[in-house]
Amino acid sequence: MSLFTHYPTLTVKEYAVILDITTADAQAALEKLYKEGKLDKKTIKNGSIYIKK
Length: 53
Hints:
Layout: H1 3-6, E1 9-11, H2 12-19, H3 23-35, E2 39-44, E3 47-52
Antiparallel strand pairs: 1-3, 2-3
C-alpha cells in the first residue's frame, strides 16, 4: 500500500516492475487489496488500473 502514497494509480505491470515481482504475483496482490476495499479498480483497454481510495 505504501507505493500508492507516491503513485496514486498503478497498473499490474507497473506494480510488478517497481517491486521486481512477476505480473502474476502483482495481479494477486492488487486484487487482494481491491477485495479488501483499499483500492478502486477501473478497467481500461489494456487491462486494469488500480487507484488509491
